[in-house]
Sequence to fold (507 residues):
Amino acid sequence: MNAPAPVAALAPTVKLLIGGEFVESKTTEWRNVVNPATQEVLARVPFATPDEIDAAVASAKDAFKTWRKTAIGARSRIFLKYQQLIRENIAELAAILTAEQGKTLPDAEGDVFRGLEVVEHAAGIGNLQLGELANNVAGGVDTYTLLQPLGVTAGITPFNFPAMIPLWMFPMAIATGNTFVLKPSEQDPMVTMRLVELALEAGIPPGVLNVVHGGEAAVNAICDHKDIKAISFVGSTKVGTHVYNRASLAGKRVQCMMGAKNHAIVLPDANKEQTLNAIVGATFGAAGQRCMALSVVVLVGEARNWVADFVEKARTLKVSAGIEKGTDVGPVVSAAARARVEGLIERGVADGATLELDGRNPRVSGYEKGNFVGPTVFSGVKPGMAIYDQEIFGPVACLTGAETLDEAIAFINANPNGNGTAIFTQSGAAARRFQEEIDVGQVGINVPIPVPVPLFSFSGSRASKLGDLGPYGKQVVLFYTQTKTVTARWFDDSTTSHGVNTTISLK
Fold:
């Protein structure tokens, strides 16, 4: 993690949320929140002090005493109100998101909407947080389970989805009866804070939701804090592995959704136009800054002749600021991100891949200072090349080929990551073989970004995920609750005593 840079003293400050109050940090460390299309400084974000982080956790711990006893219907009604407020303010939320993160306004609305779906799911907590009952498992004995909240929980979220991923985390944690400490990305926290304001307006009580800001020190403080019982993380593999190891050693329950290298298989029987549209959109949308971006395309058999068509489709995409109408590819989030992507493009050429389309240094009228990289396409990509082995997190497509479907499946399964994958075909038999044999958590069949709706859980696998339970869906209810099993027998005056029983039997 980078140290905070010099900041613009006159920019507005992003506040902490502690005990239901938006608090000005007393820190001496600040970072600029910068519009990636213009380099305008939008705000200053504080790196919270250890005392401020402790205060946020203490507030959450104190609020848990009453929140855990709040009726499940009352919790549900807060999130019914919250989803209404998000819908009413979605245009404002998208505008804030675009200004600080760079993605297009339609994509920003999509970011908010996919988080809104989880809020709607949280509103149904009464049907989700159900235990089990077995009546009369032995003579007069009943056994049942309770799903009880853990206590103070925490979330660490990335820059690329500053609305959706916080909404993956705190609504389900709070709906299940926990309290929450959120650490948003220090690069673009403004839309997250607006969502937090709306959450308080919806009725979340003081202390139930708290927010701290910062970098590595804040992450470590969350991992180490004795009063935090569970942590949810989305971000890079490097940081996620660190969080998982450190927090697990501290006795916490942890889930980490991490890096990826997502592949799409294209069979020659696929609908060409639909397939190219889908893959180009999934590869270059959000400037490639998605953990579910389709960054590797495996063209099978005669589909290997589609390289030129792919390049021409990519060439049609408009690169500009996210607020400009018709923009397909906005800027990457920072100048450092741009330099990293451009460096990997250079490495791709040096490693022997064929640069079919070079997106470096695009001319973007009116936004000459922006962090722009245009759609870039390599063919002939192989394992061992930096552009294949690393997650580029930019608008760069890696094309490779295979003779058969089996060869393509083996190629994907040899990659250590397992976040998402897709196949494009009109063959049901091929699709079924793919879904059975591919070793990846989330599978799309003619669907380029197979992120499930909240009825199901995000199910990345292998090096893309640490922890057994995923965010949202049924799995996250188990993640945020402790199962308590109760075995009960009630006696009345007619019950016959059989004396002392020293066996384990319940008979």
